[in-house]
Design goal:
The chain has 175 residues and is mostly helical. It has helices at 2-27, 37-45, 48-62, 73-88, 95-121, 128-139, 144-174. It has 7 helices and no strands.
């Protein structure tokens, strides 16, 4: 029972880290989401189901002001699954491997999120940096799909790099 309580505490801390990270990114209008650190940390310390719960919780909380945020829960689930595989293979044990995993995590999250952006938000990601790129590409007559992919890529790939590297640093300092 004591082990379950410890895992629940880690999941709760991961959710708080994600929510605070997202708030900071929105407040300062950063070109990232900054809401994946908690998910990766929980996946590392608790495992797959803890990571999935953490990733989903962030979107459930966001759904309080935007119901379609629930759909992005799929991105959180996929991110936890992918990071779990990377962690199993030791990708969080060495810096170069962490960088590689963060790039692929960003690419996969971009591919999962872009269709949601296209269907519900006319291709916009909701991040002013990504949305500015979408506007610019549309102004230059790029297709909606290309503009949406680029707008999401510029945010997701950089975001996952920052989040995974910050998580790597935290793990390195803790262990």
């Amino acid at each position: 029972m004591k082990e379950k309580g410890k895992k629940l505490m880690i999941v709760a801390m991961g959710i708080v880290i994600n929510v605070v990270g997202r708030y900071i990114a929105n407040y300062f209008k950063l070109p990232i989401w900054f809401d994946m650190v908690g998910t990766v940390l929980v996946t590392y310390y608790v495992g797959l189901w803890g990571g999935i719960a953490t990733g989903l919780a962030n979107n459930i909380l966001s759904a309080c002001y935007d119901v379609t945020a629930l759909l992005y829960g799929l991105t959180g689930v996929v991110a936890a699954l992918l990071m779990y595989r990377f962690i199993q293979r030791g990708y969080m044990n060495r810096l170069l491997k962490a960088v590689i995993s963060s790039f692929w995590l960003g690419v996969v999250c971009m591919l999962v999120s872009t269709p949601i952006n296209i269907i519900f938000y006319d291709g916009y990601s909701g991040n002013i940096w990504g949305d500015a790129l979408v506007d610019m590409l549309k102004w230059y007559d790029a297709s909606d799909v290309v503009a949406a992919l680029a707008g999401e890529a510029v945010v997701e790939i950089v975001d996952k790099q920052v989040c995974v590297l910050l998580t790597f640093l935290i793990i390195y300092l803790v262990e």
